[in-house]
Amino acid sequence: MVRASFLLIIAGAGVACGGGGGFPDARPPDAAPKGTFSLAWSVVDPNNQPLACERIAAQTMTVLTHNLAFEGGSTQIFNCDTGMGMSEPILTGTYELDFELRGASGLLARAPKQTGIVIEENRNTELAPLTFVVVPAGNVALGLASGKPGGNCGATNAGGAGIEQVSITLQHADSSCEPATLAISAGATRPAGSYTINCAAPPLVGCIEADQVISGANLPSDAYTIHVSGLIGGKVCWANNDGIQVPGAGNTLTRTLNLGPTGVSGCP
To answer: How are strands ordered across the β-sheet holding 181-184?
Structure first.
């Protein structure tokens, strides 16, 4: 009898809590009141001239949302080149919002913070338009690698690529030449130097080893094709013709350019 009475008490308690159990006024987390925001943005240079996202290697526009009723925040991520978008639903409340333009090389620009933004249930809030100002120039830090255990400059009979001289050209997407002066760092076995690009008559310098860095500063942001030739006995025996993207905002592209054999007759 005692056990039966206990079961009846439990059953009665379950009925008292309502048909769904728990607290009738509590909402499951997924049912919490939410709304959205929408926004548009533009990217310009310091002279207020429009910049394409691809030119400065911009990939995402990120909104960092902070509901003032809570600690921390969350992010909403948009593709840079869309120029506009609507957020996923977020909890209702009053927000402060930060805006960042980013690419593979890092942060490119921030737009002014917007505060006191009220997100209402089942409604969309339109934000003030954003403008990101980006200096369309950046840097490169490039290495050359033949993949040979004896290095780029080592003799072929010692496992090296045997490269004696190198030439470099840098062409914009429209095939025009960028007459940049590149710095070449010292390596363990090779001295430091420099290289000034001349696409019409590419100058030759001594071999550049895999531990040396070819750097260029303040290059115009753009998509380029870099042509590197490694010569042996006056013949182009190794080459690289990679596409590279110089980012904006003074960011640096760091990359290794892999040299491959050209198969030219008479090359080792």
So the answer is: 193-196, 181-184, 214-220, 137-145, 252-258
The last residue of a domain, from among 91, 111, 133: 133
How much is the mean pLDDT over the chain? 91
Query: What confidence score (pLDDT) does residue 22 get?
Result: 36
Confidence class for position 21, pLDDT limits 50, 70, 90: very low
Residues 37 and 129 in one domain: yes
- Report the 10 Å Cβ neighbour count for 179: 12
Cα separation, 176 vs 172, in Å, equals 5
CATH code (residue 126):
2.60.40.1120
pLDDT of residue 168: 98
- Give the chain's domain count: 2
Strands 235-240 and 205-206: unpaired
Among 85, 115, 133, where does a domain finish?
133
Q: Considering the entire predicted model, what is its pTM?
A: 0.83
Burial class (CB in 10 A: 0-12, 13-18, 19+), 246: buried
**Pairing, β 34-44 against β 130-133:** parallel
Strand partners for 95: 67, 117
> What's CA 41's distance to the chain center, in Å?
18
Q: Which domain holds residue 225?
A: 137-261
Q: What is the pLDDT of residues 114-154, one digit of tens each?
A: 999 999 999 999 999 999 999 999 999 999 999 999 999 99
| 83 and 117 both lie in a single domain | yes
Do 146 and 211 fall within a single domain? yes
User: Are both 147 and 244 inside the same structural domain?
Assistant: yes
Whether residue 14 has pLDDT greater than 80: no
